[in-house]
Amino acid sequence: MSEKNFSFDTINQELLKFLDESPSSFHAVANQKEMLEAAGFTRLLEGCKWSLEAGQGYYVTRNDSAIIAFRIPKKDFAGFQIMASHSDSPVFKIKANAEIEVEKKYVKLNVEKYGGMLCSPWLDRPLSVAGRIVVRTPEGVKTKLIKVDRDLMIIPNLAIHMNRQVNEGYEFNAQKDMLPLFSAESGENVKGSFLRLIAKEADVKPEDILDTDLFLYNRMKGTILGLNGEFIASPHLDDLQCAFASLKGLLAAEPKDSVAVHCVMDNEEVGSGTKQGAASTFLKDVLHRINAAMGRSEEEYMTALASSFMVSADNAHGIHPNQPDKADPTNRPYMNEGIVIKYSANQKYTTDAVSGAIFKALCAKAEVPFQTFHNRSDMLGGSTLGNISGNQVALNTVDIGLPQIAMHSNYETAGSKDTAYLTEAAKVLFSAAVCGDGDGNYQLKW
Ligand code: ZN
Predict the structure, then answer these.
(1) Most buried among 80, 177, 277, 295, by the most CB within 10 A?
(2) C-alpha closest to that of 26 among 194, 167, 146
(3) pLDDT tens across 366-390, in order?
(4) Ligand 1 mean position, distance from CA 383 (Å)
(5) Cα(143) to centroid of ligand 1, in Å?
């Protein structure tokens, strides 16, 4: 394939900045809002009436942790072209009444797991805390973003002398092994010390903090590495790499016959079953409201769905250099070799021959490489959001992702070329229309 002139360096630097500024799903959404505002998109609120105009771009958030941005073409539209990804990653959440005193000498914090993470990467590295708090105001309550921007905690390993068998395998106990060391305070200063720190950061009174959603985050910044800069390593590549590429594609696209919809849901790592997750009505509500605000009938909504296409974009497993036999024998996705189309006979991934074919045609139009992924037949894979979203809005959907290794580590590795490929594919998707021309036949209008 003749390769286009992609500006890999530029997009990687932008991605690294986005990742660094997005230590929680709330921050990931806030940063996308900023990018959309800068590009002239108008904010909509779910609680207010929408008046929309052809040719304009809009966005709406739910729970400050999920976001849908869309652009309406200048003329009447055939359907919706959607790319869906997720804002959350496996992480440790800080519990209420977090301080635990140890022999009146140390204070550690009580945390619990959010999602299925690799535990060991959380050990022996500087950590801090990010998320949101909800504070009392004279009128009611108000949320505030929190990012403590300094090295604050560490989850220390046990010395090998006290567990000589550790390298033969270790079972991590979340209540015992994963609690971060926070301070050396003692006595009456201990209780409430964590919330007092957060109150100071937020410039509010501790007693005004009514509740919190606060998470640990890895302080190590993302980087480009490899002999020739082939790889990108960072926290949150799953799935902010896809969310970022989707948004960049939207900003570069020119929707002509379809509404372009960039959709980033929360809580994929815990099954998507929240009001801001892919199992919720968020996407359906937004599509309905676009249809109604443009003066179209319910019948026209149904015909639009039949002429819509969704790309469920969630990172994929690349071949691991030390464990190449963990992958399927004939489908071998490598980092830097393009977008991965995911297949599962049991339809854990939504891809079928039609949606796979349409996406391959789309990659050809975008002049980007693609590869295919199946799980080994004797191994269960992970799940994603495409098939869950399909329960609310059923349309032709393909499951794809960018090839990465160390998925669900708090420092993951991917290819330094693949973000640019997905951005280009997203741009083509958002500029195109897939029109149902009878079941089984589709016109692809680029
Ligand atoms: Zn994911």
Answers:
(1) 80
(2) 146
(3) 999 999 999 999 998 888 998 999 9
(4) 8
(5) 26
Can you give the CATH number for the domain in which 284 is found?
3.40.630.10
**Which is more confidently placed, 202 or 446?**
202
How far, CA to CA in Å, does 123 sit from each of 100, 185, 347? 18, 22, 36
Verify that 99 and 41 share a domain, yes or no.
Answer: no
Measured in Å, residue 314 CA sits from the centre of ligand 1 at 5
Q: Are residues 374 and 323 in the same domain?
A: yes
How many Cα neighbours within 13 Å face the side chain of 163?
Answer: 9
Buried b / exposed e over 289-301, threshold 16 CB at 10 Å, is: bbbebbeeeeeeb
- Domain residues for 98? 91-218
What is the average per-residue pLDDT within 389-396?
92
Q: How far is the CA of 384 from the centre of ligand 1 (A)?
A: 6
* Count of domains for the chain: 2
Please state whether the predicted TM-score (pTM) of the whole model is above 0.85. Answer: yes
> Residue 89 C-alpha to ligand 1 middle, in angstroms?
7
**Strands (DSSP E) found in 120-257:** 127-136, 141-147, 181-183, 209-218, 223-225, 231-234
